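Late entry, adenosine-5'-triphosphate complex.
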Amino acid sequence: MKQTDLLLADAETAAPPAGWLHIDGVSKRFGDAVVLDRIDLPVRRGEFLCLLGPSGCGKTTLLRVIAGLEAQDGGTVVMGGRDIGALPPAQRDYGIVFQSYALFPNLTVAQNVAYGLKLPRRERAARVEQLLQMVELDGRQEQYPAQLSGGQQQRVALARAMATSPSLLLLDEPLSALDARVRDSLRQELKALQRRLGVTAIMVTHDQEEALALADTIAVMSAGRIEQVGTPEQVYREPASRFVAGFIGCANWLPVRQDEEGVVRSGDLSFGRSLPTGVPVATAFCRPEDIRVEPHWSAGGSMTMAIVERVDFLGGVRRAVLSLAADRDALLTVDVSRNDPGYPLLVPGGRVPVSIAPHAVRYFIDGAA
Ligand SMILES: Nc1ncnc2c1ncn2[C@@H]1O[C@H](COP(=O)(O)OP(=O)(O)OP(=O)(O)O)[C@@H](O)[C@H]1O
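Prediction complete; structure with ligand written out below:
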């Protein structure tokens, strides 16, 4: 996070919990490019952590460093008190699932799952059966990967990753090759399985919805650095930087100024919170659901008039883009549900009064990234 990109209100995010897996000061360069820049990340035992960020921010490289598939240039990786940072992958006690299922096409499902299991034959067969039951693929032992759907192949990959009961499960975009419906159901199953087994999971994804739905903790990355570590609610509601606010969900930004009476305003809108001493201007941030389309104008309330520019039907809500009547360049995105009084007023070209839930607003200092 840049120094200037300082949150003015409620700047605190949850203090990182004591870790079981400690990633401390991990750096990685490829040629001249710094891909990981002194990453610190504690991961609790049993936690489901998502590494979330845009393409190229270093998520996969960090996962590969934890796996020992890539050697870090600096920093340490300590798991359960054991420094694993220089150990070969086989000695690190993890299972891994990749985006491309990475199954052996010439081996059956059972052989794929058993690969790497060093057990006597009978025990191995029993373990494979147990693992296939776990991913609800019992009865498919003798089939080949090409006979399975993408979702089924990924379940086999998951069973194989868990075959040796590792303490850590590493997942590199495991759901992104699947179609939306399969992805959603496998997402829920993955979470339920991780909970049931109590295995610590680290998953790379660029899909914010997936991270919000699955993770106990999200580490948001940008350009080789960690921008914020927090629960899904924290990173969504209390983003620590403009980058996080803009990357996760939809963000509204309004310039604000504190007047002589100490009231923070943006046009006709006034906000409950004041700015710190010596900071007369800032940018207010809120989410689409924090803006209310009011059924009636009321003088004296903190309302402003807006013009409905566009309305999209998103199923549960109407998402509208509004421009402020006082400044047509200032756009707000609002989500209005069917039961809200403002719902029928959302007609393109219409004028509507809007207000913003004062405590939902957060301020960022202007000039930030
Ligand atoms: N083996 C490599 N040699 C050179 N550059 C690499 C190598 N692996 C990754 N990079 C570069 O490092 C940067 C980070 O890559 P990485 O795969 O970790 O990003 P990512 O956040 O996982 O992105 P994506 O979601 O697109 O996979 C990228 O600019 C990438 O081109």
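The chain has two domains: 21-247, 252-365. Will revisit in the morning.
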